[in-house]
Prior knowledge:
By secondary structure, the protein is an alpha+beta fold. The chain has helices at residues 7-10, 17-20, 30-33, 54-61, 67-70, 159-171, 173-193, and strands at residues 40-50, 76-81, 92-98, 102-113, 117-124, 132-141, 144-154. Helix 4 crosses helix 7 (173-193).
Amino acid sequence: MNLDIPPTVLHYGGGDTDESNRTTRGGETAFMNMEPRPNDFLSYECSIHIDASPARVFEVLGDLGSSVDWAGSGHIRSIDKMTDGPIGVGTKYRSSEKITMSYGANTEILAYEPSQHIMWISKPVGEHVPYHRWAFWLVPEEGGTRVLHSVRAARSRGPMGLVQRLGFFFTKPATTIPPGMDRTLQNVKRLAEAEQPVPAGS
C-alpha cells in the first residue's frame, strides 16, 4: 500500500500548525525534509492503527537504539548511540547490518518531537552515496494512535551510481524495503500494545 501523506495528517491530527512545522536541522520543517527529491528511486508510505497512546508508541520507536527489536527488515544486528546527552535532533547512531554481506551504517536524527514524529537519515559507513530518509508520524485516532511510516530512498549519480545499481541487483531494495516497513509497523504494534509490567510497590 502506497499512501500520500496529506498536510493535515502531518499536522498531527489537526494540532497547532506552528508545532507541526517546528524547524529541524538546516531550518527545514519535518514535512520539507521528507518531500520527494530528483534522485529518489523509492518513495513508500504505510500506516497502522495501534491501540495505545502516542506517548506509549513513542516509547517503543522514539529511540532508534531499540530498532533491533522492531525493524522489520531483519538487517540490523546491533546499533549503538554515538552521541552524548538526551535523544533529539542531531543524535547519531552506528549500526552493524547485513543484507548479502555485513556492513556498518551511520544514522542521524533530523527531526524529533516526542509523541508526534521522528525523522532520520542513514547510509553505509564510508560509502559516497546519498542518505536514505526515514520517518514515523504519530496521529491520535479513536483512543489509540495512527502510525505512518515513510521512506525516501536515494540513488547516486555518475560512476558511483553504476556501482550502487549493481549492488541493488543483489539487494533488490525496491521490492524488499516496502514489506520490511510493513513488518516494522506490525512489530511496533505488538510491542506498544503489550501489557506493561506493574512497577514494584505500586
